[in-house]
Amino acid sequence: MKAWLFLGGIVFCIFAAARDDQASPTASAAEIHSIDPSFQPLPPPPDTHAGKVALGKKLFFEKRISGNGQVSCASCHDLAMGGAGAGAFSMGVDGKDNQVNAPTVFNAALNFRQFWDGRAATLADQIDGPLNDPNEMASSWSDAVQTLNADPVYAKEFFSVFGAPASRENISQAIVEFEKTLLTPNAPFDRFLRGDVNALTTSQKRGYEKFRSYGCVACHQGVNVGGNMFQAFGVMGDYFKDRGGVFKSDLGVFKHSNNPADRHVFRVPSLRNVEKTAPYFHDGQTKTLEDAVNVMGKYQLGRKLSKEEAADIANFLRSLTGEIPASVKGDHRP
Amino acid sequence: MKLKKNHLWAGFCLVAMLWLMLALARGSQSYFADHQLALNAFDAAEKVDRELDQGVLLARSLLLSNYDALAASSSEALQMCGRLSLIYHNKNESEGAGLLRPHEAFCAAILKKVEFVEKFKKKNSILQNSLKYLPIAIERARKDNLARSRQLFTVLLQYLIDPSDLNYHSANHLVALIAENSRRPGAADSTDEFLLHTRVVLQAIRDRHEFELGILNTSVPDSLREVRAAYLKSYEAQDHFTSNLRLVSIVLTVIFSLLLVWIFVRLETAKESLAALNHTLEDRVAARTDELNCAMEELEEKQEQLLHASKMSALGEMAGGIAHEINSPLAAISLQTELIANSPHAHESLLPALKAIEGTVGRISKIVSGLRRLAHGGKKNEKVRTNVEAIIADTLSFCSEKLRNSFVELRWNKEFGYEELFCQPEQVSQVLLNLINNAVDAVAGSQEKWIAVGAEVDGEWVRIFVEDSGPPIPEAVKAQIMKPFFTTKAVGKGTGLGLSISRNIVGAHGGKIWLDTDCPHTRFVVELPRG
User: Fold this and answer.
1) Which span out of A215-224, B191-200, B305-314, B514-523 was modeled with the highest average pLDDT?
2) Predicted model pTM
3) One-letter-per-residue 3-state SS of B23-87
4) Chain A, window 190-219: residues with a beta carbon less than 8 angstroms from a chain B beta carbon
5) Would the CB atoms of B119 and A261 count as touching at under 8 Å?
6) Which residue in A10, A21, A231 is closest to B136 by CB distance?
7) Is the CB of residue A261 less than 8 Å away from at least one CB of chain B?
8) Closest to B126 (Cβ–Cβ): which among A2, A8, A235?
């Protein structure tokens, strides 16, 4: 049985490879439109508790829960800036560098792990990280809880939503509930997946084909176009040697697993809204989307991409930019 | 005091029962709910493990289009350990200890498996990607390397199917040959690219195989089975304990409820007996009050009788005096009348008048002697033998004048007149006189006025009756006529004692007096023993 599946897999693989190779840049719309189950359109936002969402949103912008009262979640996950920071590294309390590029909070609920190194299994666990990190919010749960409960407005809101004073659990719950609403629907690519052949430009369609045939799809796939697996950064070359310099965050999963095989292994990031989240990669050292595509092509796929190919793929990635979710429309960094 | 104690007991029983039932209900409810949760968690763990296997198998055959489902399963699997440990927290420590070791083994196994799955995904993607590219890279390779490159690809595919060291080594050998060849001048870049991908594929196949073996060798199903067995064992122990507890609770509940019922029954009987006591007490008070009232009446009657008796005795003395005073002149009148009658000078025409005077004197002396008898009667208290007729005659001597004056016809039935009585004749006369006087008053307003007097004999009894033609006595009055001070006569005319005294007199003789309700007329009967 296993052997048959094996054989079948190989045959399929070969045929798939052969077909991909024949696919020319001028493939017909019908061919392009052949549904690739590697991708799924963004699902509608889940049912959420309005009270918790409102409270979570308020907490997301709340600076007083940080150690010096000047950093909120939104300070690094700027909703107006694609849900991530504008700089290479996000800046924590007193301007401390965090040595890692802030991942976007948009569609984060669809990622199978949180953080670049995937050390948090859930959004709720993720909150512990920045809150307690001395380089980020430099606070603690007890301080945050105390601060919130000392504020009569918050005390009242927590009572009306949870029937209890603020606690580690319900603060997390509220913020997570808010984050669940941060899906960015109706990206051109989503419309394309739903059957709107004209949602992508010709260049984007070419980029889509390359994305699939060159193997980007092997890791950036699924509903979030990424975010569902780990991968080593530098499969086909040593990115870190070529880049130079040493960053703590370069270690990736190794930081918490201590397994040498996990060195430079990261959670594959989602490519949704990637257009808005420059600079790129965990080290924030790549400024443009085209450069990022080239880095990936070289170190992950072991292929040199022509300028046109990189541009097409980058254009395709721009089709992944969705709409700002209704819950934060018009909100800016406070 | 006793009742209060009972109430306390009842309250205690009730509270204890409610508490027991509540504890039982809540305990068993949460207990069974926990058990169901535990079973569900085990099932979920098994399902996740199966999903991981299926996902890996599909991915390995390059049939999986994306990792979303597998990623979801691996996230789920990561939370399985925590979810199961929640179940053990609900158990007490000693049982938890038995579960702890297999649980930890399970957690380690599932974490290991998830780790292997993630590594597998990683390598599988690379492999998939490079495998796709290899045929293209071969075509781009240098002509002199083309045959070897194709051979290498075949070996790679063989290695993919059979990841044996032999295949690995022969592939590596070919890689070394191609690399050697391509180092010669004029080698194309694409050969390097081909070799790079080949090396990556080789390593990926090797690693992937290792991770597959790792996944296969994790003891998730075994450890899950062990954890489940340990849990079920502890559950059964707990279940045994719980069912015992439940039995004890049920028995206690039954005992308490029986006790409660008993207490209520006791309370109820106590209440009833109290009510009964109250009731009899009321009755007794009423009876005693009646008795007291009777005694008071009797006393008053006795006083009145005493007064009456003293009046009578005073009257008797006076009557005696008067009789004495009258008798002497009467004797003189009688003597003088006799002298005149016997006188030779007496005119013949005077004789009838003299006779009349003598008769009248006789009557006066009769009345006087009757008066004296009556006056002395109360005092003497001596019973004598006499007959009915004498008594009636004696009585009538006092009232025949009154009867005549009231135009009342007297019907004297003299049958049984000879019957003898042993009695105080004056007193019996007084009774009859009373009855006759009442009868005279009763017939006063009637058209037909008569009074019948007579006697009957019934065995050892003589019944003297007084009957009149007056209107019947009203029902309301009948019941009260014998009571002292009861009278229907005008104020000052009667004392209300007549019948009462009569009853006492008759009673003292061992007889009875009653109103004969069978008779169409008003008929009083005085029953006295025969002499």
Assistant:
1) A215-224
2) 0.62
3) HHHHHHHHHHHHHHHHHHHHHHHHHHHHHHHHHHHHHHCCCCCCCHHHHHHHHHHHHHHHHHHHH
4) 213, 215, 218-219
5) yes
6) A21
7) yes
8) A235
The answer to which of A158-162, A227-231, B21-25, B79-83 has the lowest mean pLDDT is B21-25
Q: Is A296 helix (H, G, I), strand (E, B) or coil?
A: helix
Given the residues A31, A62, A136, A157, the one annotated as active site? A136
Question: With 50 as the cut, is the pLDDT of residue A23 above it?
Answer: no
Residue A57 has pLDDT above 90, yes or no: yes
B52 burial type by CB count under 10 A (0-12 exposed, 13-18 middle, 19+ buried):
buried
Give me the pLDDT at residue A25, please.
42
Query: Exposed/middle/buried for B116, CB within 10 Å: 0-12, 13-18, 19+?
Result: buried
Beta-carbon separation of A303 and B130 below 8 A: no
| Residue B87 domain-assigned (yes or no) | no
Q: Looking at this predicted complex, what is its ipTM?
A: 0.83
Cross-chain CB nearest to B74 (options A112, A231, A302) = A112
| Whole-angstrom distance, CA of residue A275 vs CA of residue A295 | 16
* Stretch A253-259: mean pLDDT: 87
CB contact under 8 A, A235 and B65: no
- The rounded radius of gyration (Å) of the Cα atoms in chain B is 70
Minimal Cα distance from A114: which residue of B? B75
pLDDT at position B230 is 84
- Show the domain range for B410: 381-529
| pLDDT recorded at residue A105 | 93
DSSP reduced 3-state for B427: helix
**Residue of chain A whose Cα is closest to the Cα of B161:** A6
Q: How, if at all, do strands B450-458 and B409-412 pair?
A: parallel
Q: Closest-CA residue in chain A for B193?
A: A302
For residue B59, being part of any structural domain is answered with no
CB atoms within 10 A of CB B403: 18
Residue with tokens 């009797």: B298
Best probe of the B interface among A193, A211, A236, by most B CBs < 10 A, is A236
A112 with B200: Cβ contact below 8 A:
no
Note the pLDDT tens digit of each residue in B433-473.
Answer: 888 888 888 888 888 889 999 888 888 888 899 988 888 88
CB A223 within 8 A of CB A233: no
- Name the closest residue on chain A to residue B197, using Cα atoms: A302
For helices A2-22 and B2-60, the axis angle rounded to 10 degrees is 60
Percent above pLDDT 70 for chain B: 89
A9 has a chain B CB within 8 A of its CB: yes
Of A104-113, A160-169, B506-515, give the lowest mean pLDDT range. B506-515
Distance between CA atoms of B332 and B317, rounded to whole angstroms? 23
pLDDT, residue A24, reads 43
Q: Which residues of B touch A9 (CB under 8 A)?
A: 60-63
SS3 content of chain B, % helix, strand, coil (to 5): 75, 10, 15
B432 domain residue, yes or no: yes
CB contact under 8 A, B128 and A13: yes
Beta pairing, strands A265-267 & A230-232: antiparallel
Q: What band does B303 get if pLDDT is binned at 50, 70 and 90?
A: confident
A136 is catalytic: yes
Chain B interface includes A39 (CB < 8 A): yes
CA B156 → CA A4, B162, B199, distances in Å?
Answer: 18, 10, 10
Note whether B153 and B195 are within 8 A (CB). no
Facing residue for B79 by CB, picked from A9, A38, A121: A121
Q: Which residues of B touch A267 (CB under 8 A)?
A: none
The reply to whether B504 falls in a domain is: yes
pLDDT at B247 over 70: yes
CATH classification of the domain holding B403: 3.30.565.10
In chain B, the number of structural domains is 1
Q: Tell me, what's the pLDDT at A295?
A: 94
